Every structure is written in C-alpha cells, then in structure tokens.
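TA notes, week 10

Several of you asked for a full example with nothing omitted. So below is the full record: structure tokens for the whole chain, then the designed sequence directly under it. When grading your own attempts, check the secondary structure regions first.
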C-alpha cells in the first residue's frame, strides 16, 4: 500500500503535469488567435466580435456543467483567454500598422507609471521613443537629463508630469517652439488651461487628452480616452490618431466639461474609498479580523479601497483640490452619508428603503 506522503507527491506531480498542459494549450490558442488577427487585418475586419465572444462563453459554461464543474469557473477560464487574445490582437494590429515607424517621440516624465505606459504604447506603434525624467532612465530607452533640446526636435512630445510641473513645461515650450505635436495627459485641465492656450496661440500643435485608466491596463477595450477641445482641431485629430486603431472608446468634450465630469467620475469615487478606509482605520478593529469575516460586498469594496490606498497621494490630492468643480461631489457624498445616518438613527425604515430604491432606479439607467 502506498504511503500517504508518496500518494501526495504523486498527485502533486499529476497536477503539475496538468498545469503544464494548460499553459501549453493556452500558448497554442494564442498562436491560433494571432493567425485570426492576421486574417482580420487582411480583410479589414474589426478586432472584436461580441457575438462570437458570447458564443464562446456560453459554450464554456455548458461544457463545464457537462463535466461537473461550476459554469462560472468555465466562463472565467475562457474569459481570461479571451482577454489575453484581444490584448495580443490589439498589440499585433498596432505593430502591423506601424503608424509611428521612423518617427521620434519624447515622453517627459517617462519614468513615472503613466509615462512608462506611454513609452510602451508608442513603441508598439513603431515610434522611436526616448525619455526625459529627473527620476532617472527607463531600461532599454534613450534618456535625456534635460528635456528641452530633444523636445524641440521630436515629432511627438507626451507630457506625463505632475500638474504643476506640466504647466511649467508647457510654458517653456511656448518659447522653445517645438516642431512636433505636444500632448499633455493631466487628470485635471483647469491648472494647465492658460498654458495650453498660450501654446496654441504661439502656433504650436498642442492637444490635451485624458486616458481614463491606470498604468496597469493592457487591453483598451472598455476603456476610454477623453479628447479635450482647446480650439486646435488639427492637433486634436493627430492625438486621436494615436488611439484610433485601438479598441478604446474616444470621447471629445470641452475643457470645462472634462473637469466637471472628472469631479464625479474620479473625485467622488476616490473620496468614497478614502472615507471607507479612513473609517476602518479609525474603528480600532484590526483589518485581518474584519477581512476574515468579509461579506461579498465588504470584500469587493475592500479590494477597491486597497488599490486606491496604494496610489500616489499627491496625485489624488491634486485631483481633489485643483479641480474647480471638485467640492460639489465630495459635499454630496458627505450629505448622502449624513442622510443614511439620520434614517438609521431615527428608525426610518421607509426613508432608508426609498434611498435604496431611488439608487436602484438611477443605476438601472446604465443598463438601459
């Protein structure tokens, strides 16, 4: 009879072999995906086919159920493969098109997290990318201790610096008169509005955009890039072209509209999460104790709050404090929390119920 430890070792070895087969099959799947992508490009077909994705997910659920597995597990496995496939197809499409081939790009602030994202994104399109950042070099890319001279020569300059530094850089570019397109990517536009206008009036091709995603994003499907109209349509069209061959959603709006929107989309969500983890930190309850008995809702909220807490506090303070529309959502959050508190303290079941029902009615519009 086999000893328990020997049985355990044998079973673990079988699992290792199966895991290896899964990875091998995933690699084979990616090879097929690459061939499909080439065919789509040849016939000018879109990268994403939502009908086909739905069919594949449903097939995975049915197959999992027939094998005694949780259908959700089957769909998650295939869903991960679909996202990896879309990421590969998007990257391959950009590489094949090579819209930046032979052209020079400088990322000021390229050692930062979003700066690094842009260096990779542009390199995928064939741009000859270099970096200027006081934080130091980025491995594998040319680095400039001073951004000024390379900015004058580059065909594309991405300014991925903190807002105060961005305004100062844009102001200097007015005098430097760069030959190429200047694109700033700040989360708030009011602090750089005057600098953008000065550049435009000086005859520099300048555009303002806001990628509505973080630096960890690989697939742009379901993500958005805001194109801010500062009265330079040709420059904005050039900025739009950087993303047109991706699956990102592109939305154009005025500078004032952008800051109003961001106050609610970023400012409110950040404030809610900061308030959430601040309340927990002041509760006197150890987080491992709370997390150990987490409900589904608490676990999901805790995961989001942990990501927010790990972000750059200086950037988040800029988003809250420099937006001229930033106080409205935070005040609304405080008023809503007070309303919930009053309903609970007063035993007002009807009022509490109406808060939840009103929220449900509002949120249903997202699915309409």
């Amino acid at each position: 009879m086999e000893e328990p430890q020997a049985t355990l070792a044998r079973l673990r070895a079988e699992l290792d072999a199966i895991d290896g087969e899964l990875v091998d099959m995933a690699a084979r799947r990616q090879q097929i995906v690459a061939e499909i992508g080439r065919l789509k490009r040849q016939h000018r077909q879109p990268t994403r086919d939502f009908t086909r994705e739905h069919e594949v997910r449903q097939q995975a659920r049915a197959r999992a159920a027939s094998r005694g597995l949780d259908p959700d597990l089957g769909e998650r496995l295939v869903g991960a493969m679909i996202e990896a496939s879309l990421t590969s197809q998007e990257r391959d499409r950009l590489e094949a098109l090579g819209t930046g081939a032979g052209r020079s790009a400088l990322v000021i602030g390229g050692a930062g997290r979003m700066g690094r994202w842009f260096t990779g994104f542009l390199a995928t399109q064939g741009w000859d990318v270099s970096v200027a950042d006081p934080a130091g070099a980025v491995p594998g890319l040319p680095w400039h201790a001073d951004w000024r001279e390379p900015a004058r020569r580059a065909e594309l300059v991405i300014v991925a610096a903190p807002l105060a530094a961005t305004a100062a850089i844009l102001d200097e570019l007015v005098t430097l008169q760069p030959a190429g397109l200047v694109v700033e990517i700040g989360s708030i536009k009011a602090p750089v509005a005057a600098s953008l206008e000065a550049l435009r009036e000086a005859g520099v091709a300048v555009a303002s955009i806001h990628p509505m995603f973080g630096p960890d994003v690989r697939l742009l499907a379901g993500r958005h890039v805001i194109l801010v109209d500062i009265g330079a349509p040709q420059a904005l069209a050039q900025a739009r072209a950087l993303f047109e061959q991706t699956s990102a959603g592109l939305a154009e709006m005025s500078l004032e509209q952008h800051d109003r929107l961001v106050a609610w989309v970023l400012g409110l969500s950040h404030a809610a999460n900061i308030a959430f983890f601040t309340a927990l930190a002041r509760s006197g309850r150890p987080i491992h104790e709370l997390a150990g008995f987490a409900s589904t809702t608490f676990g999901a909220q805790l995961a989001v709050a942990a990501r927010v807490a790990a972000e750059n506090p200086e950037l988040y303070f800029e988003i809250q404090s420099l937006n001229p529309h930033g106080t409205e959502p935070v005040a609304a959050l405080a008023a809503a929390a007070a309303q919930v508190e009053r309903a609970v303290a007063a035993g007002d079941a009807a009022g509490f119920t109406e808060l939840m029902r009103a929220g449900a009615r509002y949120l249903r519009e997202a699915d309409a």
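The CA atoms of residues 104 and 128 lie 5 Å apart. Use that as a sanity check on your answer.
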